[in-house]
Amino acid sequence: MNSITKLFNIKYPLIQAGMIWVSGYKLASAVSNAGGLGIIGAGSMYPNVLREHIQKCKKATNKPFAVNVPLFYPDLDAIIPIIIEEGVKIVFTSAGNPKTYTKHFQDNGIIVAHVVSSVKFALKSQQAGVDAIVAEGFEAGGHNGYEETTTLTLIPMVKKAINIPLIAAGGIATGSTMLAAMVLGADAVQIGSRFVASEESSAHINFKNEVIKAKDGDTYLTLKELIPARLLKNKFFNDVQNLYQTNPSKEDIVKLLGRARAKKGMFEGDLEEGELEIGQIAGLINKIMPASKIVAEIINDYNILIDEFTALKL
Fold first, then answer.
1. Does the pTM of the predicted model rise above 0.90?
2. Could you read off the pLDDT of 92-121 as tens digits, one per residue?
3. Residue 313 pLDDT > 70
4. What average pLDDT does this structure show over 267-276?
């Protein structure tokens, strides 16, 4: 047992990211039942849909699970009372100021972890009183930090700066990448892209198939004028890159993006016009599996590597 497994009361220091259009109750409960911490992604849910997923998750697992709350969500005043009313015990916040709601959550008996992409914001989160920090490197899929700091360098720098539990994210999908993150100083890992290609993921099968076909170089971080996002290259991505050649204004980019691009691509399966958010680690993902088998495979490979590297001790 380490600081994260003790904090969340879970078997393995492995957390499934709360991704929009992917992380519903089926995925969250499957990961929690497998010994990790499953997370429901509230960022793509209307308040009544979030309540439904929380209630279904409570029925599907008796293990701890969490809800991810992006702090730019337009209807926070509606979803936060639902999280409290439904007795959720763990919340991961992201994309905003952790000071805003951390104490409110904690006053209602909720453990809070906050996602950051730099040492500066890790320190601000610690000062805000969060219980744990997720440090997410540049390799990660979906919305990303502006700093473009890789996980390999971010984790040891954040570890040196803080004195609360640290969760590594970005570019982690295997036992070997989990071990690397732990050696760098993480107390646990948060994994997103690998669970996109799970049977329980609510991502469209078209998107899942694109993920398992992806190779190195097939993703790119773009849309930095809005919120940086790592995307699979497709027609929409090319349209964005072509627009950049015209020296566009922020308004031009917003107009091209329009509404519900991520839903169109990830949830509805439009591989041409949709936004396909995935991490660089997609190049190592080559099959769709049940979430329980993904967890088991990662932990088994991690333990095998621990034994192998112990034998290599100098």
1. yes
2. 998 889 999 999 999 999 999 999 999 999
3. no
4. 93
Q: Residue 159, Cβ neighbours under 10 Å: how many? A: 19
Q: Give the pair of three-digit tokens for residue 300.
A: 């088994």
Contact 272, 208 (CB under 8 A): no
Closest residue by Cα to residue 158 from 118, 202, 211, 218: 118
Structure tokens at 172: 């982690």
Task: Residues 3-202+287-311: name the CATH superfamily.
Answer: Aldolase class I (3.20.20.70)
**What pLDDT, on a 0 to 100 scale, did the predictor assign at position 62?**
97
Is the pLDDT at 142 greater than 90, yes or no? no
Distance in angstroms (rounded) separating the CA atoms of residues 288 and 212: 8
Q: Pseudo-torsion of CA 77, 167, 263, 205, nearest 10°?
A: -140
Say which residues have a Cβ less than 8 Å from residue 14's Cβ, sequence separation at least 6: 31, 35, 36, 37, 178, 188, 189, 191, 295, 298, 299
Strands, DSSP E only, in the chain?
14-16, 38-41, 65-70, 90-94, 111-116, 132-136, 142-143, 166-169, 188-191, 219-222, 229-232
pLDDT of 312 > 70? The answer is: no
Ranges for all domains in the chain classified under CATH 3.20.20.70: 3-202+287-311
